[in-house]
Design brief:
- By secondary structure, this protein is an alpha/beta fold.
- 41% of the residues lie in helices and 19% in strands.
- It has a 5-stranded parallel beta sheet, sandwiched between helices.
- The longest helix has 17 residues.
- It starts with a strand and ends with a helix.
- The mean pLDDT is 94.
Length: 160
């Protein structure tokens, strides 16, 4: 069976924790789509196009990964685009609580048998989030351990 996995998020911006999950998913599944969620209500540091570009640059070495936009209800996107796996990352117990709720909700919304697969965050990225990276880097802290080099370069040119 061809396995087509979706890894969705806001990615505002992509962190090394996200990239680690993408690389590991690319080793497991035939095809991985990184879905950048379009949420018009959420104020973001980077435009939708910038977020997509940064992920494309950082995943250019992964031939079975592509980046796509994800509009509307996530379950509809999954149902309509032939996915059989949805990948999520787990950092801590609070992630577990919200992810469990989402996975159970999605069981009702998915049309076919679609599995949510959880990958445990690498210990060195278990504290990394996009929000925390934005705060640290905007205050002049070292962001090298938080975001890929191409993202860091763009963040330094932005006010937060
Ligand atoms: P959103 O902003 O839409 O909540 P995120 O960018 O926070 O999306 O997260 C997308 C997915 O990546 C989620 O499954 C989240 O748990 C996971 N994730 C976020 N940060 C990390 C990290 N440092 N390590 C592993 N997984 C992560």
């Amino acid at each position: 069976m061809n396995t087509k996995a979706l890894y969705a998020g806001s990615f505002d911006p992509l962190t090394l924790g996200h990239l680690d999950i993408i690389e590991r998913a690319a080793n497991i599944f035939d095809e991985v789509v990184v879905g950048v969620v379009v949420n018009l209500e959420k104020k973001t540091m980077f435009t939708f196009e910038e977020r997509m570009e940064m992920i494309e640059e950082a995943t250019a070495h992964l031939p079975n990964v592509r980046v796509s936009q994800c509009r509307g209800l996530l379950a509809d996107y999954v149902n309509n685009n032939g996915f059989n796996v949805v990948v999520r990352g787990l950092r801590c117990m609070s992630d577990f609580d919200s992810e469990q709720q989402m996975a159970h909700l999605h069981e009702h919304l998915y049309h076919d048998k679609i599995e949510t697969v959880f990958l445990m965050a690498d210990a060195k990225y278990s504290f990394v989030s996009s929000t925390m990276a934005k705060q640290v880097i905007s205050l002049g802290g070292n962001g090298e351990m938080l975001v890929p080099a191409n993202v860091l370069k763009r963040m330094k040119g932005k006010a937060y």
